C-alpha cells in the first residue's frame, strides 16, 4: 500500500481537528498505519500504565500500542489501521492537540529516505533511483516500496525511516514509487567500529600491483561475489555458519589478490543483514575468516 489517500472513508465528525482525523482515516483505509503527532512533530507520551515501558513495551500492530493499550502509546507502535481505534474516545484528546499525522512506513511495506537539506537532495538525485518524492519544509522524502531496518544519520542530512520508526505525512507526492534498491539498503550498514572491525579497506597488499585478480579476469571476481551473495540469500537454516563459510570462501580465493574493496565487503554484509545477521556478527565472521586464513 502507498500513502496516497486514494481510498476514502466517511468524514470524521465531532472532532475539533477533523482535517487530521480525515487524513488519518483515509491513510488507514489504504493500509497505512497512522498516529497523531503533537507539537514538535513527535509522538505523544505513554499513558501511566505504559510509562517507562512498565507494560513490557511489546508492540502489537493490530492494536494501538502494546498490551492492547487503548491510548496513543509507544510512539510508532501506536500506529494502526483500525478506524475504530482512530475514532476512539482515548484518541480524541490526542487529535485535539495534534499538529500533523504520522505514519509507520515499515508497517505499510514502505521505506522513506528523509533528505533534510539541499545538499542531501542533490546527493539523492545523483545516487538513488527515481521514485515518488514528497516535498518537506527543508528537503524531500523519497518513498520506496519495501521495508528495511531504520537508521538515522546514515550520511549528512539523510535518515532512513521504515520499520520501528514513524514519518510525518505531508501529502501523496509526485512520481511513480519504485522498489527499494540495494543502494538504500546498504545505507543502514554502518562502518564497523575500528576496535572490532576489519580495516576500513578490506583489500590486502596486492601481489599483482594493479588491483586486478592476477589469476583471473575482473569478471571472475564479479561472478564470485555474485555467487557468494546468492549463497547467503538462499540460506534457509544455519545462517551464521553459511555467512562465515561464504566469507571464508571469498577471502580464500581473493583475499591475497588485492582486488577486494569496501564495495565488495558491503555487498556481502548487506546480503547477510537481509537474512537477519547483525553488523557485529558480520564483522566478527569476516575478521575470523581473515584470521583463519592468516590474512
Task: Please tell me about this protein's structure.
Helices cover 34% and strands 14% of the residues. With 295 residues, the chain is of the alpha+beta class. Strands 4, 5, 6, 7, 8 and 10 form a 6-stranded mixed sheet that branches. It has a 4-stranded antiparallel sheet with strand order 2-1-3-9. Helix 6 runs antiparallel to helix 7, helix 6 runs parallel beside helix 8 and helix 7 crosses helix 9. The radius of gyration is 23 Å and the shape is elongated. The chain starts with 17 loop residues before the first helix and ends with a helix. The relative contact order is 0.10. About 13% of the residues have low confidence.
What tags apply to this protein structure?
295 residues, 14% strand, 34% helix, single chain, 9 helices, six-stranded mixed β-sheet, alpha+beta, four-stranded antiparallel β-sheet
Q: Helical region count? A: 9
The pLDDT mean sits at 80
Question: What gap, in angstroms, lies between the N and C termini?
Answer: 48 Å
Give the low-pLDDT segments: 5-16, 60-64, 191-211
SSE pattern, N- to C-terminal: HEEHHEEHEEEEEEHHHHH
Tertiary shape: elongated
Give a count of the beta strands, DSSP E runs of length 2 or more: 10
Q: Determine the structural class based on helices, strands and strand pairing.
A: alpha+beta
Sheet-strand content, in percent, reads: 5-15%
| Largest sheet: number of strands, sense, barrel closure | 6 strands, mixed
